[in-house]
Amino acid sequence: MSGHGGRQMILWVLLFFIAGILLVFAEFFLPGLVLGAIGGVLIVISAVLGVYHYPDYTLFIILGELIGTCVGIVLGFWVLSRTRAGNLIMLRDAQHADAGYVSAESDLALMGCEGTVLTALRPAGTIMVGDKRVDAVSDGTFIEEQKRVRVVQVHGSRVVVEEIENG
Prior knowledge:
alpha+beta
């Protein structure tokens, strides 16, 4: 297609594409999927219009749309990470256990204690240590109810036990 009509169609394709990228980017600030979905539809419409009106350039249009979308998303994340809104969304520093951050208090006092299986461990279940009910996992074996077990590992809220052999 050539002439004024061809240039006008290129402008529409570019307009739909750029508007789509901007709406996808706006989705970061106004979450709800609506703007992102409309942006995605506009990107697809721009690709369809481009391929329909310029079939000889299909490969270039599709590659251009894919590369442009990827570049737009990367630039969007880059810009977002430098804004106040991005700072509210993104975690900047890690929370390490040695600094006092734990997801659940670890009950290290259970280490080495013995208890009785309340619900069969296959491999997870409940044991009774003293007068305390504890969620536990076996060391990989099935342990029936009322069997005696020993706590062999405590990591966070994960308590690993093994059966005490009679003898």
